[in-house]
């Protein structure tokens, strides 16, 4: 590390293309491609078609989640041991600086970034994804719009195995279903639903057992973290956004979505806004809606 390099703890959750490129030059950095889709339209085959040079592919469904179950939801967090095994295979040690990207809105790569930051490993998300990296000029920083070479590669990168020690998902990072239910009833807590408004209101539900939301939850769709250019809003704008749904200093903030994936986008946006300590409800709506003992709310926010 040179004197001008940021310490790992200072790696911000959201990186612009220049920050991403500079950090990627570090010998202790690992670039991870997390392009993935539930319907299989994106995955390793997308990575092999062209990716940032040196990037390693992480499969969201198998590397970043445990098997689905009615009791734990569609994308439960993997056990600390399974997560550590996946990170070790990807060449990530506990101190590795991880730079993750996808090719859309960051909703896939945010899962990995949040998971790593939750266990103390420095990680950042490329704002604007692969498109931003290409627009910025690729590996050498040359402007793509000027017609200079912009490289992607098709290599299937297999890094040397690293040693990632298992670290528990602590109560400071995750909330249980019971804690989420209690927070929804508490004036001192804010439960955020990161899904689209129509799913929150219960107007439609394409995947889960029942439509609606956790009683007391407020709606802040993860897509609202982005501006018209598809990039994250500035910190001040994000602070205003979350303040509008009741997030204030000292509040107990819990975030969920359909299955604990896109909620990570809100969690990174909260951190970018200066709100620290927000927690993920990992089972999210897929777990809540499958438990018929849990009340379901519908309609707009109270």
TrEMBL record:
Q: What InterPro entries has UniProt attached to this entry?
A: Rhodanese-like_dom, Rhodanese-like_dom_sf, TST/MPST-like
Keywords attached to this entry: Repeat, Transferase
Domain Rhodanese, which positions?
25-142, 185-297
Q: Which Pfam families match?
A: Rhodanese
- Asked if the keyword Aminoacyl-tRNA synthetase belongs to this entry, the reply reads no
Note the superkingdom of the native organism.
Bacteria
Q: Is Endoplasmic reticulum included in the keywords of this UniProt record?
A: no
From the Swiss-Prot or TrEMBL record, give the protein name. Answer: Sulfurtransferase
């Amino acid at each position: 590390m040179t004197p001008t390099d940021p310490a790992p703890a200072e790696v911000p959750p959201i990186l612009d293309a220049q920050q991403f490129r500079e950090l990627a030059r570090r010998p202790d950095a690992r670039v991870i491609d997390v392009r993935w889709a539930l319907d299989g339209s994106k995955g390793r085959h997308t990575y092999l078609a062209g990716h940032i040079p040196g990037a390693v592919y992480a499969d969201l469904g198998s590397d970043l989640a445990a098997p689905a179950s009615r009791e734990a939801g569609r994308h439960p967090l993997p056990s600390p041991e399974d997560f550590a095994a996946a990170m070790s295979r990807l060449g990530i040690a506990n101190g590795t600086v991880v730079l993750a990207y996808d090719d859309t809105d960051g909703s896939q790569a945010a899962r990995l970034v949040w998971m790593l930051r939750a266990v103390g490993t420095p990680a950042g998300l490329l704002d604007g994804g692969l498109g931003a990296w290409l627009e910025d000029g690729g590996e050498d920083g040359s402007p793509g719009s000027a017609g200079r070479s912009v490289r992607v590669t098709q290599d299937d990168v297999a890094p040397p195995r690293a040693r990632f020690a298992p670290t528990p998902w602590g109560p400071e990072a995750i909330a249980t279903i019971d804690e989420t239910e209690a927070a929804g009833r508490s004036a001192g807590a804010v439960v955020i639903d990161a899904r689209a408004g129509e799913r929150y209101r219960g107007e439609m539900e394409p995947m889960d057992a029942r439509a609606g939301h956790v009683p007391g939850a407020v709606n802040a769709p993860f897509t609202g973290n982005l501006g018209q250019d598809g990039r994250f809003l500035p910190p001040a704008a994000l602070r205003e956004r979350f303040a509008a749904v009741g997030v204030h200093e000292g509040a107990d903030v819990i975030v969920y979505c359909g299955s604990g994936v896109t909620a990570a986008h809100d969690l990174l946006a909260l951190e970018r806004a200066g709100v620290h300590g927000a927690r993920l409800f990992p089972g999210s709506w897929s777990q809540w809606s499958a438990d018929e003992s849990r009340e379901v709310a519908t309609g707009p926010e109270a």
